[in-house]
Amino acid sequence: MSSPEIHSDVVETGPAREGLSRLLDLVFGFFIWAAHFLIVYVGAALVCALAPAEASANAGLTVALALATVAAAAIVVLHGVRRYRQQREEPEQQFPMYVTIGCDAIALVAIMWQLFPIFLVPACA
Amino acid sequence: MTTAINTGAARPPSELAPSATQALYPQSTGPDGFERLNAAWQKPRRFGFFTEVNNNHIGLLYIATGFLFFLGAGVLALLMRIQLAIPGNTFLSAGTFNQFFTMHGTVMMFLFAVPIVEAFAVLLLPQMLGTRDMPFPRLSSLGYWSYAIGGVLVFSSLFFRMAPDGGWFMYPPLTGPRFSPGINADIWILGLGFVEIAAVAAAVELIVGILKTRAPGMTLGKMPIFAWYMLVTAGMIMIGMPAVIAADILLELERAFAMPFYDPTRGGDPLLWQHLFWLFGHPEVYIIFLPAAGMVSMILPSFARTPLVGYVWVALAAIAVGFLSFGLWVHHMYATGMPLLSLSFFAAASSAIAIPMGIQVFAWIATLWNGKPVLRVPMLFILGFLFIFTIGGLTGVMVAAVPYDLQVHDTYFVVAHFHYVLIGGMVFPIFAALYYWMPVMTGRMLSDRLGHWTFWLMFIGFNAAFLPMHLTGLLGMPRRIYTYSADLGWNALNLVTTVFSFMLGAGVLLFLFDFIRHLRARPETRLDPWQAPSLEWIAGNAAHAFRSIVPITSRYPVWEQERLKDDIVAGRGYLPDAPTVSREALVTSPITAEPEQILRMPGPGWITFLAAVATAICFAGMTIKAPIVGMAAGIAAAGLYIYWLWSLDSKLPREPADAGRGLALPLYRNGKQSVGWWGLVVLLISDAVVGASFAFAYLFFWTIRPAVWPPDGSQLSGFFDPAVISVLVVAAYALFEAAERLNRRERRLAMSVCLIISAIVAGAALPLGWSWLNGLGVNSTQHSYGAAVWTLFGYSALHIAIGAAMALWCLARVALGMIDSWRCLALRICLLWWRFTAPVTVLTLILIVGFPYVVS
What we know:
The complex is a heterodimer.
Chain A: H1 20-25, H2 28-50, H3 55-87, H4 94-113, H5 115-120
Chain B: H1 31-41, H2 48-51, H3 55-84, H4 94-128, H5 137-156, H6 184-212, H7 225-257, H8 270-304, H9 311-324, H10 340-352, H11 354-370, H12 377-400, H13 402-408, H14 412-442, H15 448-474, H16 491-521, H17 536-539, H18 557-560, H19 564-569, E1 583-588, E2 595-601, H20 607-623, H21 627-647, E3 657-658, E4 664-665, H22 675-704, H23 720-744, H24 748-776, H25 784-815, H26 825-855
Antiparallel strand pairs in B: 1-2, 3-4
Helix pairs in contact in B: 3-4, 3-5, 3-16, 4-5, 4-6, 4-8, 5-6, 5-20, 6-7, 6-20, 6-22, 7-8, 7-9, 7-22, 8-11, 8-14, 9-11, 12-14, 12-15, 14-15, 15-16, 20-21, 22-25, 22-26, 23-24, 23-26, 24-25, 25-26
């Protein structure tokens, strides 16, 4: 995928670390948020469509959804911490670092927020 | 070829640099250079209205057209208010009323709100970012003309009494073939399809423009905040619009070819439309709101005379809103009987989005607090925005709660809520922007005195018209009824609303009068009447924007960079000249904005206008069932697009050219730094969303009726046929990949053979797939399952067919010597298409073949 332009004899002036993946890393937290949102929403819908109204299944579903939420939250926290360790020393990366960690933080709140419906609303009701 | 190559950021901004003497096309900072620069960017004297592609010209036309649609849809609203002023009124018939409210919503959302915010971005962003034009000027032009012609077609259907009448969100089954047999709904689908495509074109343009064509030194953290908002908005259009495009395609397939996606009697489900529509439709609210918030964040510092408080926080909030808004769509569907837990997830997300929204509002208030605000007309409109939008937000919190929503769903309470959000959140900021940026557009100021009148008429008129609507709704008046009986207690409230809606209209009319008058009567102003901090106030409405492009070191360059304007005007920045009298701008890296390339841009031409006209005639001909006209125009359009595409990837010298300030840069890039590569990446992301929407439709049909699968009595597929098809497609891709490798070593013959075989292999996969699905007995009209499978197959097949055509395209260009190891961007972009198509096809086949095994 990442084939350098080996036949250009013009010196590359652009920095190497500015590809698409570097840009998308800024909003990594929200990708996890989106994945988590889809997993709990689709997962709950699927389980309830297949095995509706069994009390034990419902309790299991609640636990599974809560675990998925905690796992997603942990991934986001780890990502934020990792980027902080990598970038805090580099003066040029300060703004991208703030954005990365900020996105991780807001995504973290939005993910944890889903614990309200998970614990307060009975599954498959 | 070693020349004086330097990274631009290292040099202090005010130092006059020598030109890179050994490079091609030396730049001159003198008057001769200025002459050539002007000549390159001059608007053609004849027919410039149609042929000019520069962002100043297209942006102005775009804004003017959007405003005309705003006026048109506003007139419809007033006519409806006349009808509703008194009970039992017969001013409009029920049918006309249906057409009017449908068109009012459709035109306001699709032809005014989204286009006009894109229009402001097209007009202002290049200047704000310190460049000269959008990266693909002809794409903006095509997008504009498509939108203008498509929009006029949709709007004029009103005059023939054929306008869409199913509500602006067009729910089936009402809009399906059974209950809407006329062409009204087709006009909506095809006309809006056109506008949606223009929006995606604008999104590609904006994303690539913001990431790749900023002034050197303007890192992500130094962009004007409006650029952050537009980057997020464009990203949301890129993801959101394709969902509704997919929904439109499915609805038109149902109407034209009887494929039962939304027909429950044949396994379909109308809720599928609601999911796809609102997956777009809720982000749409923020697609409209975010640019307006961006304008507010630009205007406030000018009047508070202090930098925006919490720039990083505001940028973060914009990103957060962009993402979280995709988790809210079901809150338009609380009343559809979905499971309670599902609804609650969306209710939770709907309240989570209050965090980033709150961050923005507090940042604005803090900015006002921090500075010494000057109360001019744009500021008035911003204060009006804060007041109205906050009320709309409060009622928003109310309707986000499921039980409350069940009470007020489909009543005038909701109508009042979303007018508070949209008029407060978008129309008032747009008026602020019009007053604020008018000197950039026309070189003149609007009247301060009339502006005050306009504001108070609009502000009082709006509140007095829409505040009572909350009550009307709570008293039970449903939306979209064309009349009501006198004994329901709604009479006085409706009359008040009608009277004051005319006051709102009078405010808009006064603005129009002021605008027309100011073009003649008002004196030309000095360019920077507000002493604003951003670059567009140096550029003004000059076609080339800047004499030269000076490195940017601050978020508020006009305030904080000394001698900035002198350096720009004296040609001490980059590209002070146009040595070959062609339009040029700088390409920079996406994060740190280091200069990478001199971008040659296309100048004026007829191609975009003609292509848009031919496409419009094609769509219109198909809609009004005149297939011969449609086909003829379609062929003409195809010819024009092919001619256009062929002219891309033109031959440029291999040696670096002088960029000024002692820097030499290449004129051509063939890899991931090129704007073309970024453009296709953005387009493919949109494309992937269309595919994902089709896959969602397939899976959705199973979740609503999880029965024996396939449900239509067709056979379970074996693995042999799909495996053969997969191998063929992957082989076609691998051959293309090999062709690209061989091209790097200049092995032209071997490469040509690879391309030919790739096209043949890809072509062979298509009939094989066709006979495989037919052999299984999958029928596209019997059951929604078959319809979904054929749609998925059709989506892949179209990509494979285009991929095969690309192989032949590259072959022709190789044969003509237009592709070699250096000039190979066309080849690499086609390869990128295949890198998308091959995995998507394999995944589609796995879904079609594997899913029945998984669930049975």
